[in-house]
Structure formats: C-alpha cells, structure tokens
Amino acid sequence: MSNFSPSTYTNVWSKIAPATQELIKVKLFEVIYKETDLSMQRHIADTLGEVAGSIIATEPTSWPEFKKHVYTLFQDQNVSSNLAAFYILESFFTFCPEYFKEDSNDLYALFKNSFCHENEKLKLAALKSFSSYLEVL
C-alpha cells in the first residue's frame, strides 16, 4: 500500500482469479506500446505503476517480470516508451521504492542520461520520477 493511500484502502487483488491477474499484468504493458495518444499513454502508465506498486508492496514476489518490462521500455528507441517507463516509476515509487534498491546504479544511469537528453518531456518525466523516488526515501 502506498504511503499516500487512505486508511480505508482495501486490497482486492488477491480476490481476483490468478488467470485474470496474469492477463491484467500482460495487457497493461501491451497497451503501453499500442497507445499512440501520449496523454492516454500517461494515464495507462500511471495506472500500471499504481497496480504494480500495490501488488508488489503486499506480495513482493508476485510479479517477477515487472522490472524486466520496465527496463524493456527504457531500452526501446521510441521516446514515448521511455516516457511511459518514467511515468510508471513515478507512480510505483510511492508504493514500493525499495523494490529497485538493488538496481540503484542502473536507476542512477537512467536518470543521469535522461537529464541530459535533448527531449524536454523526457527530462521532465525523469525529474518527476526521481522526485517521487526521493519523496518516499
């Protein structure tokens, strides 16, 4: 659960059938790549970060592919994929910042390189994600 979640928050993830849980996980990442409207992609990424954060915060081993999928977005040459990855992390960090602790050097390189990138939106997304990370440490 996020540090910012209301005290009335109820985790319903465990009540969803395992097959449906897996389908949701897969489909959320699939639509990130398919969505061409950047505003909608941002909303999907925020949702994905919140869903992943709440799941992993309560069941840390329940989504082992999450980290791999996020890094795949960063490796994509398409800036919109990189933006989506930062948007995901911005939301995710409010739930479970320690999940990427062992990847601190990789995160440092991603943030540093993005701060120097020519695309202003990418710089801003990196800064917001980094701020989200620092806010909960």
Question: What does this 3D model show about the protein?
Answer:
- By secondary structure, the chain is an all-alpha fold.
- The chain has 6 helices and no strands.
- It has helices at 18-34, 38-58, 66-75, 79-92, 104-115, 120-135.
- Helix 4 packs parallel to helix 6.
- The longest helix has 21 residues, at 38-58.
Compose a concise summary of this entry.
The chain is built from six helices and no strands.
Q: Ranges with pLDDT <50 over ≥5 residues?
A: none
> How far from one another are the termini?
15 Å
Content of β-strand: under 5%
- Kindly provide the radius of gyration, computed on alpha-carbon positions and rounded to a whole number of angstroms: 14 Å
- Give the rounded overall mean pLDDT: 91
SS-derived structural category: mainly alpha
Contiguous helical run count: 6
Q: How many individual β-strands?
A: 0
Elements, N to C (H/E):
HHHHHH
Q: Could you give a short account of the major beta sheet? A: none
Shape: globular
Helix amount:
55-70%
List keywords for this structure.
137 residues, mainly alpha, 6 helices, 66% helix
